[in-house]
Design brief:
The structure is a single chain. By secondary structure, the protein is an alpha/beta fold. Strand 23 and strand 24 form a beta hairpin. The strands form seven sheets. It has an eight-stranded parallel barrel, surrounded by four helices. The protein binds alpha-D-glucopyranose (2 copies). The site of one alpha-D-glucopyranose (GLC) has 6 residues, from loops.
Length: 632
């Protein structure tokens, strides 16, 4: 109650108008650039505003309250206690309803964000793991209903966990209603896709396009008999690329995004965004228009569902990656999260070589120390393969060659390289260049799966915990991929299922082993060590203000080629993280990492002073040390 007796309330309509006014320019500028020729800017504006007003009117009360809370604390997802968990609904819990029963498990691990892997209604049969959506308004009926999702999302919200859901917006399934209508000759729906009467134009594009799945889905176009046309299909032949040059596609997808937000999704993982815009003579990835689309989506949501943030999935080289978190005119206005696939690749590269020099070089050279309204999503493993995105220039900077190093990594992780501890497998080998991508779970790739002696097991557990400490301490929101907290091995059972046998990525999508997971907190087993180690890392992280996402991270050029050193000056103290990628102790002079030896800070991970040798800090085998200098 204000002093004069008037209540300080603002109507929901007034809030909408205030948010529209706040976002209008950053929303309409990219939309006019993208669609100003296809549709009158005044019409676009009217239609977008009407759509936003409609979805806002439908937005449940509790989510409107969340909107307000987040308008006041827009940095909510940057807090150091945000840590994510990524799972397939069926493999984790059985079905959608049962996910709710697992909330206590997630809480016990320290999870504040839960990514439900694709769970919207997919096409029947092979659906690329759910990334070929047939109906965006329905949950996969084998998992449950949209009402079930809403209930789980609400329970998660109450438990302080933000649900994340996949939004596949580069393509739909061939069985989606739009595609079905297109095949029946509906001209309006045909313009939702990229269709060609003959091969002339596709062949022109093919000259510069790459292939995502050369083995299972060669080429980027598929002839469709019903349609009598060629269809652009970047991924599998049943995944039809949407035509983002058509403003109707933007409006339709925006409506779907807002429906998912209204169902309780707080984070939308925008799938395969790099591929959304096509330009003849290019690889048709990372075109500038992609960032205009992402900005428009983000700004539109800030009007009708401001509690929601966006994560871009762009698995691209270092140079192309940074703009997904906002660069130039898009600074602070595009995605709030993006996968740091460079950090992921460099972790595996450093483990295989026992060197941190390439990692240090890449992270220092290509990435800014911080972003505006955005941060990395850090991870070591996910449901996809690992593509060895290491450029020639970067390789040469540390004295190796690009092709040579990439071949070494794929050989090492397939277990072919002499002495390799890894048990992964090749994916989509390119016979011409020799490049291959890699499949396998964290446990398989770090040597846990193949370990026979207690020493080998110990080293593998250390490698996994080093990975978890790295993604928790580098900066950004760490994402733990289901099973990595207990070291689940490769799953070979996909080979017997005709819908999955053709795609080796199923190897890293095992079913959760609840017996092991439930015993892990107390168990004297490798799984127990990994589980407790992971929980400990997340707990310690949650207390360190320097690990907030808006604190700059500088990777130090120490000249030490086996240690990665990351310094983060927070407002309460500075955190210096040292990461050792070798099975031996490594030492470094305190002064080389800007630490005063006489006033040695504590290692937050052990709660004790670090081991020392004269004026040097000792980092144990595959160890992580988090030195915290408090500001006095
Ligand atoms: C994303 C997914 C991947 C899928 C592809 C096509 O990159 O992570 O699993 O195959 O998009 O939707
Ligand atoms: C490539 C693509 C990524 C896709 C993946 C599938 O890395 O860039 O979008 O998910 O292949 O394995």
């Amino acid at each position: 109650m204000a002093k004069d007796g008037a209540a300080a309330t603002v109507s929901d309509d007034a809030l909408f108008t205030m948010r529209w006014t706040r976002a209008e320019r950053d929303l309409m500028t990219p939309l006019t650039r993208l669609y100003g020729k296809a549709m009158k800017p005044a019409t676009i504006q009217k239609r977008v505003r009407a759509l936003l007003a409609e979805k806002w009117a439908e937005r449940p009360k509790d989510l409107r309250a969340l909107d307000l809370a987040r308008d006041v604390s827009p940095d909510w997802y940057l807090r150091q206690d945000m840590a994510g968990y990524v799972f397939y609904v069926d493999r984790f819990a059985g079905d959608m309803k049962a996910v709710a029963d697992r909330i206590p498990y997630l809480q016990s691990l320290g999870i504040r964000y839960a990514h439900f892997m694709p769970c919207l209604k997919p096409r029947p049969g092979d659906s690329d793991g759910g990334y070929a959506v047939m109906d965006y308004g329905k949950i996969d009926p084998r998992l449950g209903s949209m009402a079930d999702f809403k209930r789980v999302a609400k329970k998660m919200r109450k438990a302080g966990i933000s649900p994340c859901i996949d939004m596949v917006l580069n393509h739909t399934a061939r069985e989606h209603d739009w595609a079905v209508r297109a095949r029946k000759g509906d001209a309006f729906r045909q313009q939702f896709y990229r269709l060609y009467d003959d091969e002339t134009i596709p062949l022109q594009y093919e000259e510069t396009l790459l292939e995502v799945f050369p083995d299972q889905a060669p080429g980027n176009f598929t002839w469709d008999d019903d349609l009598g046309k060629w269809v652009w299909t970047t991924f599998n032949s049943f995944q039809w690329d949407l035509n983002w040059e058509n403003p109707e596609v933007f409006l339709a997808i925006l409506g779907i995004i807002l429906d998912l937000a209204n169902a309780g999704a707080e984070v939308l993982r925008l799938d395969a965004v790099a591929f959304m815009w096509k330009r003849l003579g290019t690889v048709c990835q990372n075109e500038p228009e992609v960032h205009d689309i992402l900005q428009a989506i983000n700004q539109a949501a800030s009007v009708a569902a401001p509690a929601v943030i966006f994560k871009a999935e762009a698995i691209v080289g270092p140079h192309q990656l940074v703009p997904y978190l906002g660069a130039g005119r898009h600074t602070g206005k595009v995605s709030n999260l993006a996968y740091h696939n460079s950090l992921m690749v460099q972790y595996w590269s450093a483990l295989a070589t026992g060197r941190a020099d390439l990692m240090t070089h890449v992270l220092r050279t290509h990435f800014p120390e911080r972003f505006t309204n955005a941060q990395w999503a850090t991870y070591i493993r996910c449901h996809d393969d690992i593509g060895w995105a290491i450029t020639e220039d970067d390789a040469e900077a540390v004295g190796v060659t690009g092709p040579g190093h990439r071949k070494f990594l794929s050989d090492f992780y397939a277990g072919r390289f002499p002495g390799s501890f890894a048990r992964g497998a090749d994916f989509q080998v390119n016979e011409r260049t020799g490049d291959a991508r890699t499949n396998g779970t964290t446990a398989a790739l770090t040597g846990l799966q193949a370990a026979e002696t207690p020493e080998d097991i110990d080293l593998a557990v250390r490698r996994i915990l080093l990975g978890h400490a790295l993604i928790a301490g580098f900066g950004g929101m760490p994402l733990i991929y289901m099973g990595d907290e207990i070291g689940l091995p490769n799953d070979e059972s996909f080979r017997d299922d005709p819908d999955r046998a053709g795609d080796g990525r199923w190897m890293q999508r095992p079913t959760m082993d609840w017996q092991t997971a439930e015993a892990a907190p107390e168990a004297d087993t490798p799984a127990g060590r990994i589980w407790r180690g992971t929980r400990h890392i997340l707990r310690v992280r949650a207390e360190i203000d320097a690990l907030r996402g808006d604190v700059p991270a500088s990777v130090l050029g120490t000249g030490h080629d086996k240690l990665l050193v990351v310094r983060r000056p927070g407002t309460e103290g500075t955190l210096t993280g040292l990461y050792n990628f070798t099975p031996q102790d490594q030492q470094i002079e305190a002064q080389r990492v800007c630490i005063d030896h006489a006033a040695m800070p504590m290692d937050m991970l052990t709660g004790a002073l670090p081991a020392r040798e004269a004026d040097r800090i000792v980092v144990p085998p595959y160890g992580a040390v988090w030195l915290h200098e408090e500001l006095r």
